[in-house]
Amino acid sequence: MQILYVTPTCKGGSFCMSPKKANVKEREPVAQTQQQQVKFLKGLVLPPLLTALVALSPLSTPPELILHLNVWYDLDAMLMPGVPHMFSHGAVSLGGTIDAQKGNTLFGRACIGCHVGGGNIIQPGATLFLKDLQRNGVETEEEIYRITYYGKGRMPGFGEKCTPRGQCTFGARLQEDEIKLLAEFVKSQAHQGWPDSENSEE
């Protein structure tokens, strides 16, 4: 890159611009310093920024993006061994985040009609809050799974093989893995006091 400077030695007494070559040796330390700063910022800023992006992403995060982020972190770990990485040490569980998002989506699709915000509009004493679940003898994910699959009382079953038919939903049935995700989501929300109840109503 050439540096331009102004000199009054042109014809007619006007100012002219002519190139002046900068000293190459003066630029080398600056270039090395800039490269070091870029490496430092990449290592310091980029991983937390991507972590925040994943953590704050909406429920409709496409799986392709998640796959690309996983590949990026794997590649990053190979290229910079010894540098701590957020996902490799379990600080944030990407799989757990995805399961929670899927559970929330399933809850919004299948359960929210009766259980808005963890409540129960049909039978007020049978909410999904921890105290009601414990009082009704539903304390484990397996028990939540069983009730969701086969139904109980006024709640219809959503399982593919739910019987008797009168106890099962007339709507779309859920697969076993979907009911497992729902049970995990409900148990997790119950332990947290249903903090995402505002998001579930949308």
UniProtKB/TrEMBL annotation:
Pfam family of the protein (one): Cytochrome_CBB3
A molecular function (GO) term: iron ion binding
Superkingdom as given in the UniProt entry: Eukaryota
Signal peptide (from-to): none
Alphabetic keyword roster: Electron transport, Heme, Iron, Metal-binding, Thylakoid, Transport
Cytochrome c domain span: 98-190
Family membership: Belongs to the cytochrome c family. PetJ subfamily.
Role noted for this protein: Functions as an electron carrier between membrane-bound cytochrome b6-f and photosystem I in oxygenic photosynthesis.
UniProt xrefs under PANTHER family: CYTOCHROME C6, CHLOROPLASTIC
Name this polypeptide is given: Cytochrome c-553
